[in-house]
Amino acid sequence: MAEDAILGFLESNVNISDSGQFAADVGIDHNEIINVIKSLHGFRLVDAQDIKREKWVLTDEGKSYTVAGSPEVQLFLAIPLEGISREELQKKVDSSVYKIGCAQAIKNKWVEMGKQLVSRKIQNVEDRVKDLLLRIRDGEVIDQEDIDALKRRKLIALQTWKGYSLQRGPNYAPKRKKAVTDLTRDHLQRGDWKDLEFKEYNFSAKGPPAEGGYLHPLLKVRKQVQNIFLQMGFEEMPTNNFVESSFWNFDALFQPQQHPARDSHDTFFLKVPSTTRELPEDYVERVKRVHEYGGYGSRGYGYDWKREEANKNLLRTHTTAVSSRMLYLLAQQKPFTPKKYFSIDRVFRNEAVDRTHLAEFHQIEGLVCDRGLTLGDLIGVLHDFFSRLGMSKLRFKPAYNPYTEPSMEIFSYHEGFKKWVEIGNSGMFRPEMLLPMGLPDDVRVIAWGLSLERPTMILYGIDNIRDLFGHKVDLNLIKRNPIFLRNKFQIRSAEMLCL
Ligand code: PHE
């Protein structure tokens, strides 16, 4: 083995002056010796210095003349003593031998090229060129003049030879200790860990290319919408509770207990735990009263409000449940401070699943809470928000929500379809919702909501929601999609949101 040979040799010798010579002496391929020297040098078992040597080697043409003789000699020998016509001579030798041979033989004054005949001028010639080539092949040193002549004829070329000279390094040992990578239980039990040499960590080693860590398209679009809200100075609401009580999801939002949306056809109710543990009692009392008798200038619904209904746990059907909790908390802080809130998270509805509907999806929700806000403020904020998504042509249509008055559906002009398409819902939260919370009389809340799935599907060219979301999603979809689509998103978002 090359490594044993080198380390063994250095045990009793000061150095190896020439790795080429050493390779020849021990009968191991020089390339193998070089590889081992590099490794030993890296671990400082030896110190190696480059050595470079230039030597002349034969070109293919030069090599062929060492066998067949130089072309001038081949040509000379092809000329009989009585001479030969040019045509005959040309037939006897290769065309390259004829061409080169004639030129050289004339230069050497070996032949006479007469009009009729080609004839020898001397009786015998020596093949000096062939002899010189053989001597170079065998590594002999020859005159510079001869070298120059052979180089001009491209029969030899200079080759750089690389090798090393080396001596023992600071970590020299006659045998390399194999560095251990892991400390094992056996090492500890046997106690031999004390003598082990551990391999150093290689902090600059490259890891394998990352295969995972791709973001799902919904997460990417969510990030983009999140950035828009943050740029507009909105704070994100904590949405980390999928389970909500009917109270915060419906009652606090002045949604009557007989409302069809509360029906188990639309809402998933929880079996365990089926009811909420606590609600703010005095606020519950005010909510009950506003449902039953109204107040704050309202007549209420005039029905018998039941606490058991409000206690029922469900999977939140909209993120407006989070908005109601946040506004209640805000109302408890004195003095009142204006707020801009947003959220983007999952909601659940007990709907028939088809190409565009799932029983769960994501809502984007924004609200502004401040004194004296008007419908004009809502329209202005919606223009600002949607134009950042690439939609600047908006129209509004009166609509109904139990918790907003007025309420407006939001439409955007779809350049591709050449028509107005619905993109979201909005409104001003009713006094029946805000005043029982304890917000000051002149505080108004403007709010809007839209789905995250729709823009994402259009952006990523997905026409079946089940290919985007749920247990049948192809993981390759996630890997295939570009990491960032912002420009495309902004250019195409008008289209996306409007399909
Ligand atoms: N919560 C409404 C929905 O689920 C959206 C909305 C939010 C409407 C805020 C008005 C105000 O569609």
- Global mean pLDDT: 90
CATH architecture heading of the domain at 217-244 and 315-498? 2-Layer Sandwich
Query: Quaternary arrangement of the chains shown?
Result: single chain
Count the E strands: 15
Helix count?
21
Strand proportion, as a percent range, falls in: 15-25%
CATH superfamily of the domain at 217-244 and 315-498: Bira Bifunctional Protein, Domain 2
Subcellular location: Cytoplasm
Domain Aminoacyl-transfer RNA synthetases class-II family profile: 220-482
Enzyme class: ligase
EC number: 6.1.1.20
Question: What does this protein structure show overall?
Answer:
The protein is α+β, with helices and mostly antiparallel strands. The chain has a domain at 217-244 and 315-498: Bira Bifunctional Protein, Domain 2 (BirA Bifunctional Protein, domain 2, 2-Layer Sandwich). The chain has helices at residues 2-12, 19-26, 30-42, 60-68, 71-77, 86-92, 95-107, 128-137, 144-152, 185-190, 217-231, 246-249, 281-292, 307-311, 320-332, 375-388, 431-437, 453-459, 465-468, 475-480, 486-498; strands at 15-16, 46-58, 84-85, 111-113, 117-120, 156-168, 235-236, 243-245, 313-315, 339-348, 360-371, 394-401, 404-414, 419-429, 443-451. The strands form four sheets. It has a seven-stranded mixed beta sheet with strand order 7-10-11-15-14-13-12, with helices on both faces. Strands 1-6-2 form a three-stranded antiparallel beta sheet, sandwiched between helices. Strands 3-5-4 form a three-stranded antiparallel beta sheet. Helix 18 (453-459) packs across helix 21 (486-498). The chain is elongated. The two termini are 72 Å apart. Phenylalanine is lined by residues 318, 320, 365, 401, 404, 425-427, 447-449. Phenylalanine binds at residues 318, 320, 365, 401, 404, 425-427, 447-449.
